Amino acid sequence: MTDTPKWSQEAWNASLPVYEAILRLPFITELADGTLDPAVFRRYIEQDNLYITQYSRVLAHIASRLDNIDDMDTFLKFAGDGVAMEKVLHSMYVSDGTCEMSPTCLFYTSLLKAQAMEPVAVEAAAILPCFWIYLAVGKHILSIAKLDDNPYADWIRAYSDPAFDQATEKAIAICDRLAETADMETRSRMTDIYLKASRMEWLFWESAYSPRPWEV
Question: Of 129, 121, 125, 123, which Cα lies nearest the Cα of 18?
Answer without folding.
Answer: 129
